[in-house]
């Protein structure tokens, strides 16, 4: 792998050290999982996912990440993302899942204080 070359025309002022290229952040297996997706789960959401036995495999998280990106593009702030049998209530600007509701809990459930819904 070739090191990153810095533009020689961009010189620091005299006496200042020359900038050094940052080290590579990917491993030979690829980037770390957290570097690929930009979605976090609140403590409450993590507890709900675990307690309700909801499946959060990589394809599901990728769909959630995509849904939040689409909601952000439309200016959404608080959204419900429906992925199959699971509903995620999310803060779009923070890209944070606030809570998760499985199929069994969706019946007679009311979502409040949301401005959008994404079906994915």
Please bin the fraction of helical residues: 25-40%
Main sheet strand line-up: 1-4-3-2-5
Q: What is the multimeric organization of the chains shown?
A: single chain
- The chain-level mean pLDDT equals 81
Radius of gyration: 20 Å
How far from one another are the termini?
38 Å
Share of β-strand residues:
15-25%
Structural class: alpha/beta
Largest β sheet strand count, sense and barrel closure:
5 strands, mixed
> Spans with pLDDT under 50 lasting ≥5 residues?
30-35
Question: What is the number of strand segments?
Answer: 5
Total of helices: 4
The general outline is elongated
Order of helices and strands: HEHHEEEHE
Structure summarized in a few sentences:
With 120 residues, the protein is α/β, with parallel strands linked by helices.
Topology:
Layout (H helix, E strand, L loop, with lengths): L32 H4 L3 E2 L1 H10 L5 H16 L4 E6 L2 E6 L4 E6 L1 H4 L9 E4 L1
Parallel strand pairs: 1-4, 2-5
Antiparallel strand pairs: 2-3, 3-4
Account of the 3D structure:
The chain is an alpha/beta fold and 120 residues long. The chain is 28% helix and 20% strand. It is built from four helices and five strands. A hairpin with a 4-residue loop joins strand 3 and strand 4 (96-101). The longest helix is centred in the middle third of the chain and has 16 residues, at 58-73.
Highlighted features:
120 residues; alpha/beta; 5-stranded mixed β-sheet; 5 strands; 28% helix; 20% strand; elongated
């Amino acid at each position: 792998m070739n090191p990153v070359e810095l533009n020689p025309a961009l010189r620091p002022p005299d006496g200042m050290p020359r900038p050094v290229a940052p080290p590579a952040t990917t491993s030979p297996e690829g980037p770390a999982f957290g570097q690929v997706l930009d979605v976090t789960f609140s403590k409450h959401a993590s507890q709900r996912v675990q307690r309700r036995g909801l499946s959060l495999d990589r394809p599901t998280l990728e769909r959630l990440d995509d849904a939040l990106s689409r909601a952000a593009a439309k200016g959404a702030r608080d959204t419900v993302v429906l992925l199959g049998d699971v509903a995620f209530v999310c803060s779009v600007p923070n890209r944070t899942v606030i809570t998760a509701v499985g199929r069994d809990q969706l019946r007679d459930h009311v979502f409040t204080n949301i401005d959008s819904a994404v079906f994915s």
